[in-house]
Amino acid sequence: PEKKYLALTAAGKSASASNDTLNTLFAQLKPVAPAFLVGDWVGGHFALPTVAPDIVKRATIDWVSRKVTWGKVFRADGSVEPLVLLDHVLPALKMRKRAILQVVEAEFGGVVSAAIVSDKLPFIDYLRYVDDDTVAG
């Protein structure tokens, strides 16, 4: 499943994967420990509807269309900076904090793995290991 997932991420917005395909691949991926995530990660997304289409729409319009690179910063204390702009045109710019995010271990689909949770927003971003440079969520 890791090779298939990486092939889809390489294709990016042109990937012809459905939500069902991605969910099936995600379920087959290995869990990832919160400690593995400590550091800076470059973000990405598939051009598919999600549970938060308004957020993806804003992200696509504001960042992807301008080819701005964004990511997350995971700290050793478990805190997460969710949207950090990493573009060469824009210096590392942290988005205004609206909620406190933490990385925890949580069960999804019978697998305990790292997940991002918020103190204010009703979501859990479950994560799985793809390779040493890639996690799926």
From TrEMBL:
Origin species: Mycena pura
Phylogenetic placement of the source organism: Eukaryota, Fungi, Dikarya, Basidiomycota, Agaricomycotina
InterPro entries in alphabetical order: DUF4334, GXWXG_dom
Domain of life according to the entry: Eukaryota
GXWXG domain residues: 25-87
Domain DUF4334, chain residue ranges per copy: 103-137
Protein name per its UniProtKB record: Uncharacterized protein
